[in-house]
Amino acid sequence: MNLRRPEVRPNPALASSLAGAVLWAxxxxxxxxxxxxxxxxxxxxxxxxxxxxxxxxxxAAIPRGVAAPMTRWNAGGIAGLLLASLASxxxxxxxxxxxxxxxGWIAAAKYLCVPLLIGAPVALSxxxxxxxxxxxxxxxxxATAFRLGWxxxxxxxxxxxxxxxxxxxxxxxxxLAVGVILCLAVTWRVMWGRVRVTRPGC
Amino acid sequence: xxxxRALLASLLILAAGIAVLARATDGFRAFTSETARRIDxxxxxxxxxxxxxxxxxxxxxxxxSLRGRWVLIDFIYTRCTTYCSVQGGVFARLQAELAAPIAAxxxxxxxxxxxxxxxDPAHLADYLRRFGDRxxxxxxxxxxxxxxxxxxxxxxxxxxxxxxxxxxxxxAAIAVVDPRGRLVDIVDWSEPRAAARYVTATHRDSx
Lengths: 202, 207
Known about the structure:
The complex is a heterodimer. In chain A, 72% of the residues lie in helices and 0% in strands. Chain A has helices spanning 12-28, 30-36, 40-58, 64-72, 78-88, 94-102, 104-125, 131-154, 165-192. Chain A has nine helices and no strands. Chain A is mainly α. In chain A, α1 (12-28) packs antiparallel against α3 (40-58). By secondary structure, chain B is of the alpha+beta class. An eight-stranded mixed β-sheet of chain B has the order 1-10-9-4-5-6-2-3. Classes of the chains: A mainly alpha, B alpha+beta. At the A-B interface, α5 and α6 of A face α1 and α2 of B.
């Protein structure tokens, strides 16, 4: 609230990175972590996206002197979005979802990898990306939601030793729903939204 | 040449990403922790801890006393009423099929309860009766101590989670222990033949 007052002269980058750090710290509180890892559904659809969001918010703290040289290797945001896509893959594997619950090292890797290699690169790359690159990234996201949802629904048995079959099926259904919602959002944007075709910084 | 630089960076990221994924999946073979545990056991056989068990007859035996023969082990809880109750039927069938090697002392079947609080010797005896135990070569037992149970679950990689209905969901399988007392393989309970082959292969070879 205080930050909104004009006399305080808010620093949006600082506020954003602080929010990211606070979010990350809250997610790391053991009872909250346990709660978010109690079901497969919460781990994949709440914990991991929030960790990525923490990285996205914290990326505002990266000074211009560091971000600019990175941008030179990230034309159109391609390298950064590719990094985020690849870094997200291990955390969709049932094996890693299982292991991050019982293995402290894997859990630590998740808490570092998801914000730093998914959230932050997307934050730095999205503004650089043009219409085509953004479209590809979003379509891949939609395809992944459908693929994973279908996988969890079609798997003959439990894929995670630490989670129940009902949880797995629910996650499958929710992922299909996420895919549909993303699809509708993208379609809406393309049909009726304002789509900027020029690519800044390229 | 910003585009070429981005391309180069992307290729490096792609190579690193594929390497990490390969590492995380044992060369794209293990996408679940269950497959990973089976691959690991086959590659690195695990020595069993000498845990003390209490059998359905109330006797106390060390796991080490079973050395010198093949041992097929499954983890159970006797209250199971869902699909895991087929485990008992599978072991009863194995007991019938392996009657000769059992009589020769080449193999033993062992069902270990991971629910020792409930599964006292009486419940274990009832479990064996229920599935038609033929009286030779099949032991049902519970770990005598909590530490023993934990050590067994860790070594065998068994995870049992409460199913919210008073029972457990667990990664049921048949564990194969060789005569040297090492866990060498874990096979699906739907493929008891694969477990039996270990035993029959050596049984036929021996005079």
